[in-house]
Amino acid sequence: MSLQTEFAFVLPKGYIDRDGNVHREGTMRLATAMDEIAPLRDPRVQANEAYLVVALLARVVTRLGDLPSITTGVIESLFAADLAYLQDFYQQINGVGESRITVRCPHCGEVFEEAAPALGDRRLPPSTACTRR
Questions:
Q1: Which of 4, 39, 66, 88 has most Cβ atoms within 10 angstroms of its Cβ?
Q2: Is 58 among the domain residues?
Q3: Model pTM?
Q4: Which residues share a beta bridge with 29?
Q5: Which residues form the domain of 36?
Q6: pLDDT tens for the chain, residues 1 to 133
């Protein structure tokens, strides 16, 4: 039995290159630990945490149309809908979409589970469990 490590996708809108060609079909590979660690050293990520998503996706998107390479510039130029799609796709194939974390409510002290933050989001999700807010 082998593990599938690359997954095909189709962007909702597509990347438009300098010549006006639209690139929608691509592949993304499973992320490694280094894929998630290395971007943290990038000065652009250190200056703006939101850039982590761009740096990470540039590492794991292996093909987009017939582009010769996928760079941070390509990811930066995606339409917002395509970036959101790739973030969701990343979470889906890497099994992080259903992650849960244990949190303590700052209002009542109750401990409960919440959905883990999305890729690149370092904020804790707002709790819906506490009625004392």
A1: 39
A2: yes
A3: 0.72
A4: 6
A5: 6-93
A6: 788 899 999 999 999 999 999 999 999 999 999 999 999 999 999 999 999 999 999 999 999 999 999 999 999 999 999 999 999 999 999 986 455 667 778 778 887 676 655 555 555 555 555 666 5
